[in-house]
Amino acid sequence: MIAEIITVLLSIYLIINIITFFPYSRYFYKNVFYLPQKDYLITVDDGPTKYTEQMIKLLQKHDQRAIFFLNGEKLSGFEETVKKIEKEGHEIGNHSYKHYFFNPLLSSVIINNLKINEEKLKKYTDRINYVRTPHGYQTPGLMKYLKSNNKKFVYWDTIMLDFIPFIPLFLLKFQVNRFINKKGILCLHSNKKSVKILRYVLTRIGDDYE
């Protein structure tokens, strides 16, 4: 039974990676953000939510910085949280105004959402250098737009499955351990389960630096 569950979870993970990789992989484009050296970078998608502030406090406790990719449609009611992201030295990234759940969208739809979202985010920061579209969606038209506007697309090396409700914590910790070993860019999501995972990530990073 356990083996069957693990097989299903791994299949879901593989499908997600295929959807976000082909044909929209970062390897097809040049203006993608890479770490200058093998190190850690924590990124948090789909905020702000009621859990974002808890994540900010955890990062502050461990003296770590992150990029928070925010959706403009979620800003209302979390204005102070967004201000705190900027105040604590984190980066605010553009995650589009709406979070679309399907990849096959025209470049113009995504670009328009990014423009709307940037205007919303400018109320909180004048540094909106990084973009990550929902699901890491990329098209040549989108990447051309980002390049002409001096924006960097931030993909990931490890995307946590913390956005899937039934994924058990031990499997997420297994993902974290793999991330710690290979380093790179980690993609978390702003939800209750992610707070626990972020705490574990920061503890593991601290152990690795000692």
From TrEMBL:
It comes from the Bacteria. Keywords: Membrane, Transmembrane, Transmembrane helix. PANTHER family: GLYCOSYL TRANSFERASE-RELATED (PTHR10587). One of its GO terms (molecular function) is hydrolase activity, acting on carbon-nitrogen (but not peptide) bonds. GO terms for biological process: carbohydrate metabolic process. Pfam families: Polysacc_deac_1 (PF01522). InterPro entries: Glyco_hydro/deAcase_b/a-brl (IPR011330), NODB_dom (IPR002509), Polysacc_deacetylase_ArnD (IPR050248). This is Polysaccharide deacetylase family protein. Residues 38-210 form the NodB homology domain. It comes from Candidatus Mcinerneyibacterium aminivorans. The chain crosses the membrane at residues 6-24, 153-172.
